[in-house]
Q: What sequence folds into this?
């Protein structure tokens, strides 16, 4: 099976049939200009070295060279060869709060975007670990099942905003329960949940959910995002207000997050602007017993762009060697 890694470049192939058409139009316009000087046959006698055939030969060679170059640029690949390998690592599910309070700007540019950046940097540190993503507000759902495809993780992460969960609120307990159900059947020991939120729980009992998770051998870590002094919430260019017209202020509830981490046999970290808190948690997770994760299947493809570039180079050289003047042996008339 032939596939193209950079298939968007194939759009340039639309220029291949267009080049002869444009050249034919230019030749027609040239003949019209020649007729203005007099008889066309007489003008040709005055230009004995000119060869119209060579022009077409050069165009065909250039057109073919361009076609092969574009195909090479699109990186054709054949395969695929299926490989199977065994890895060792932990499974980490991150629960990210996407409620409106995460729009507060006590972090740059806001709490949510700062958290997404930290998760993205975390994926760059992971090797054989698996990562999953649960987003929550008034309810929760799995945004990304556990995977070692960190590129996909970043792609899913980029699409998250406060509108990703239509029900507003902060149901931390529901997020923990959703994460518990999302671990793979292979993982039994090296499992951890990282809860990133401002801790303003309005829906359920996250401490009990963390305690149940710990009873299943799952550690629950919490990262507190925000300031304890409070911060207004911008929304649609204005500050969010309650039904009485008062400005809504969101404050970090550290005590709740500490209680959740303690019940979950994990640790609590207050996120900073420089060190968000994920790195020390990952260092602690490295102490967990790494498990063997079997049946990790991926595909590899053989690159085939080199022959196309070689053919293109040869055709470009031939196009330059043909020249523009009429051959004495009349090979290109």
A:
């Amino acid at each position: 099976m032939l596939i193209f890694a950079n298939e968007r470049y194939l759009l340039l192939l639309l220029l291949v049939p267009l080049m002869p058409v444009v050249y034919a139009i230019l030749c027609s316009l040239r003949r019209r200009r020649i007729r203005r000087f007099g008889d066309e046959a007489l003008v040709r006698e005055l230009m004995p070295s000119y060869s119209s055939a060579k022009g077409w030969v050069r165009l065909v060679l250039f057109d073919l060279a361009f076609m092969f170059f574009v195909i090479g640029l699109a990186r054709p690949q054949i395969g695929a060869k299926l490989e199977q390998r065994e890895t060792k690592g932990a499974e980490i599910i991150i629960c990210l709060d996407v409620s409106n309070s995460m729009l507060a700007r006590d972090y740059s540019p806001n709490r949510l975007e700062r958290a997404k950046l930290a998760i993205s940097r975390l994926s760059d540190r992971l090797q054989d670990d698996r990562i999953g993503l649960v987003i929550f507000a008034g309810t929760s759902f799995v945004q990304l099942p556990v995977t070692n495809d960190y590129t996909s993780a970043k792609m899913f992460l980029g699409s998250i905003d406060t509108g990703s969960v239509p029900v507003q609120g902060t149901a931390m307990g529901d997020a923990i329960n959703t994460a518990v159900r999302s671990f793979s059947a292979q993982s039994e020991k090296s499992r951890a949940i990282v809860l990133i939120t401002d801790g303003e729980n309005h829906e359920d009992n996250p401490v009990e959910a963390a305690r149940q998770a710990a009873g299943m051998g799952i550690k629950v870590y919490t990262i507190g995002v925000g300031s304890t002094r409070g911060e207004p919430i911008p929304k649609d260019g204005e500050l969010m207000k309650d039904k009485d017209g008062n400005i809504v202020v969101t404050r970090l509830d550290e005590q709740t997050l500490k209680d959740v981490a303690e019940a979950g046999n994990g640790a609590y970290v207050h996120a900073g602007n420089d060190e968000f808190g994920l790195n020390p948690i990952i260092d602690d997770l490295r102490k967990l017993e790494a498990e063997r994760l079997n049946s990790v299947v991926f595909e590899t493809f053989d690159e085939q762009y080199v022959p196309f570039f070689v053919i293109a180079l040869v055709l470009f050289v031939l196009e330059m060697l043909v020249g523009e003047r009429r051959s004495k042996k009349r090979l290109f008339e």
